[in-house]
Sequence to fold (730 residues):
Amino acid sequence: MTLDKLRDGQSGVVHSLRLDTSAGVRLMEMGLFEGSQVTVLRRAPMGDPLEVQVGDYRLSLRKDEAALVRIQL
Amino acid sequence: MKTTIALAGNPNVGKTTLFNALTGLNQRTGNYPGVTVSWHAGAWPLPDVEAELLDLPGSYSIAAHSPDEAVVQRVLAGEDGPRPAALLAIVDASNPERNLYFLSQLMDLGLPTVVALNMVDVAREHGLAIDAAKLAKALGCRVVPVQANKREGLDALAAAMQAALADAQPARGPGLPTTGPAAATPDTIRRRYGWARQMLVDAITRSAPGGPRFSDRVDRILTHKVWGLLAMVLLMGAVFQSIYAWSQPIMDLMDFGVHWLGAWALRPLPEGLLKELLGDGLIAGAGSVLVFVPQIAVLFFFIAILEDCGYMARSAFLMDRLFAKLGLSGRSFIPLLSSFACAVPGILSTRTIADRKERLTAMLVAPLMSCSARLPIYTIMIACFVPGRMLLGLVDQRALLLFALYSLGLILAIPVAFLLKRSMQAGAAPLFLIELPGYKWPDWRTVGRRVYEQCREFLTNAGTIILAVSIVVWALGAFPRSAAQRAGFSARRAALVQSAAPEPQVQALDAAERSDRLNHSYLATAGRGIEPVFRPLGWDWRISMAALASFPAREVVVGTLGTIFNAGGAEQAEGGRLRDALKGVKRDDGQPLFNLAVALSLMVFFALCAQCASTLAVITRESGTWKWAAFTFAYMTVLAWVGAALAYHLALWMGLA
Fold:
């Protein structure tokens, strides 16, 4: 399952990232890498972007970017 | 020789607040070469050293993904001037891991480093306690807890920096690459985060936070699918209204003040060229610069508050989907909305957009938004040539037309932004990764500082260009002057004075002279020359001349029409004199010059054209090259011409003339 598929309020642990784009590296630098705990908090009015809790802070990212992150529930 | 100390840290950790608290009001600003990032520097009074603190742009990583981001690395490595003697790194105690990731990169650069541990109170609220002494031991450098917003811990920070400068011990991070492709490989990132956790192991204590956080409760409303949008509409409506309502009286007052001051200062001068140059060229030009200041101040007052309290990121979050379709992001929302009041502050506010291509796109479509300077031409044309009639018994067709004119630029901005963004898009799509920081009370010094700086920068940079353009256009309208005509008017004036004619008659003669002079000026010659270009729009040489004369600012077109048709200045226009004059003007073949079709073509032209030297000056300044301003002028003029021609011929075809 990828991060964009999580329901609002659902948590998971990052399993892996697609690193073939620079976006993947960016996400890692922001603290989303193997073993990080993430929670989807909510979605914007039109369903995109998402607001997620990563570590101690909140990050907003688009569905396309969230789809790069594989999650283990 | 001053000792330079660099200040670096993540965005949203109170870096600007700390910078302002340490340096006070004595700051210098400028731009880094080749990028759109500005720098700030200010004196930091340390006990025994004359130090200057250099505020670096907030960043999440030192590994550059764009030239703008490379600034931090370049400055700290000493590639942009002398290498700083020491580094002050600010760390958010409520989000230690990600902050220590960046710190690991900073420390690997090997400068003597002091860590300012900020937002300790927020961390405590979140159930996070960090022992500064233990963290200092782990990091091997000085760590000082501070509360930048309350100005606490600043003396201890100064003492620590003084000591760090004295023993000049280079910092040592995990010893991983900081430049080149190796700086941001997955392996490097994992190892840096591993180091961050290791540094925190002994220093951090986590306890369960008590109850939901304040920010969470606020966010449940402000980012809600329904309430969040409603709150945003209300908030933006209030901001927008304030730009109009608060700045209009100040603008009117300034306008009045400038005119009064001009008249007073020039009274002792004899009538003639010098007085005209100073009055109509210099003072009127300065007035047209100053008139933007209230709008810039009001808008940036709100932007600074919204940014500092954390709402700006939420508005981008809420609006992103809509703007994503144009290839932009939610970050473009506020700059484009602001441009409906005035494109100048709107373009300045694109600085809040991190992605350079997106910022440029937003900057180039911002002038399409129908700003308040378009209103005078809309009002006068609608009042003169559009009959008031209720459509479907619901809405006045004049109101509908006004609404259509306001929508026109917005609608055209959609394909323009799409095409611009596509043509600029080489390779990867930009990311929309933004942090949603916890809400906090804005720091008023930071807000005040932002407003002051924005106004000062506008006046010193764009202001000079606008002034120069105003004087050139004045000169084109004032020359050549024929001695015979002047003598003729002087004789008539003398005769009037002799016969003790009433004042209005003398004023009418003055107006007639102004009109006569303009109609024989270089500008008139240019108007005749360019007439064939504007003929498909239904214009004659006089309207063409008015369009040329309004290059510095589109709102002057009304006053210029008044002068051309000898109907007095803009003041009389509202009184109906201009209206009567416009209706009475004939073409060479005896047909009335103005009709509904011509009025529509004029309005559409001014809705879409880039007749605003201020906007072009600000685009030049903000994009770093005049080429983008030239491009904006070109594409908008083409759009305006095509739109006006279509409007004119459509109106003729529908028999509206």
